Structure prediction request, 272 residues.
Amino acid sequence: MPFLRLPFISDDYTQIYHSRHYGTIDGFGDLAGDVLYRSRGTSLVLTHLVDNLFGFSAQSHRVAGVLLHMLNIGLVCALGSWRVIGWKLSLPAAVFYAFSMGHQEAVVWTAALPELLVFAFSMISFLSWRRWLDTQRPGWLLAVAGAFMLALFSKESAVAVVPLMAVAWWLDRSCGRRPCWVLAGMTLVAMVYAYPIFRSGSEHLHLHDGTFSWQAPFWVTLPHSIWRLLWVWGLAALAVVAVLREREWNRVLLFAGVWIVVTLLPYSFLVY
Prediction:
């Protein structure tokens, strides 16, 4: 609540500036040609809508961030519909996610709106994937594809949702090999999406301004990030699981471990 009263933060002005051009229907053509901002298209459209409806108001953009955070809390809770996790885990996880301080910067910083949106669309795609594996209804597969495309146009890290889906299918293995073809198609889409980004070279701001580098020491950053994520309650929880020696937790721990590594890996090449 205190953040709702704050003025805009530096990069918020850049976000609003670009949204007034790229976030309009007339600006979509230019957005498609911008190798950096087309991967943040959904945030620019949403920023434009808020700016157009409520004017140049920092509070309106803050409220939009809080509402998106509330949606994401619900999506974390919805993971309980998957029997590998269950409601007994997803509900307390959602409560922890709601109040954890670690990611609140993205909630109150308009320029970080892509983080909220890539999480939301990736989770919707993943949950739809789980429903499709259970029901095999084509409507859920359309939801998977649609949400995945929106996630890709929210931020580059959306490609991480593909291996997460693969692990979820592997843990259940109740749908035969048909999902392999879907995963192969999504992998191809992710590769087509990533190719022009890396091919753009100097045209992509983040590839030459010190933001991203293939030479970044990810082998140091990744374990350090995992340690920071688990400290202190995650390590305490692992200790409890080790003492109880309940085998039913093995699949949850395996999926959680893969989830942590996969989702942090794209950010481990950021050099700032």
Q: What stands out?
A: The chain has a mean pLDDT of 90. Residues 180 and 250 are 24 Å apart (CA to CA). Residues 113-135 form the longest helix (23 residues).
